[in-house]
Amino acid sequence: MAVIVGLFIILIIVVFVKSNKSQMMCLRCEDTIYAVKQSQGSIWIEIVLWLCMIVPGLIYSIWRTTSKKSVCPACGSSEIVPIDSPAAKRIKSRIPG
Fold first, then answer.
1. Dmax over Cα atoms in the chain, in whole Å?
2. Which residue among 53, 56, 57, 84 is buried most deeply as judged by most CB within 10 Å?
3. Tens digit of pLDDT for each residue in 50-79?
4. Orientation angle between helical segments 54-66 and 43-52, nearest 10 degrees
5. Dist. CA 27–CA 72, nearest whole Å
6. What is the rounded distance in angstroms from the CA atom of residue 31 to the CA atom of residue 91?
7. What b/e string do you get for 29-62 counting C-beta neighbours within 10 Å, with b at 16 or more?
8. Could you state, in order of their start, the residue ranges of all structural domains in the chain?
9. Is the per-residue pLDDT at 93 higher than 60?
């Protein structure tokens, strides 16, 4: 029963976490991108915690699900800004074309 409740809670969190589909600019590789969400932590640690006990696995799963960060799909950097920000405009003005 506790496993079902835990999975239900994780499903609710995943459904309600909104994704960012606006165009962004990576400050590291200076590429115009659509950011992707990346989970922190390790799936292997999560599996081990679920196998050991329900509560640690549930807590770790909730942390991994809620602590996703937006990263550049090209270089993996989290240094991304909206395309209309002053930093992105400065980079665009330096790039020819």
1. 60
2. 57
3. 888 778 888 888 999 888 899 999 898 999
4. 150
5. 9
6. 10
7. eebebebeeeeeeeeeebeebbeeeeeebbebbe
8. 2-94
9. yes
Q: How far is the CA of 19 from the CAs of 14, 27, 69, 95, 96, in angstroms?
A: 10, 20, 10, 29, 31
User: 95: which 2 tokens?
Assistant: 């790039």
Total length of the chain:
97
Q: Who has greater pLDDT, 4 or 62?
A: 62
pLDDT tens for each residue of 46-56: 888 888 877 88
Q: Which two tokens stand for residue 9?
A: 């809670």
Examine the pLDDT at 86 and tell me if it is beyond 60.
yes
Q: Both tokens of residue 63?
A: 């942390």
Judge whether residue 14 has pLDDT over 70. no
Which residue is it, tokens 């292997």? 44
**78: nearest Cα among 33, 16, 13:** 33
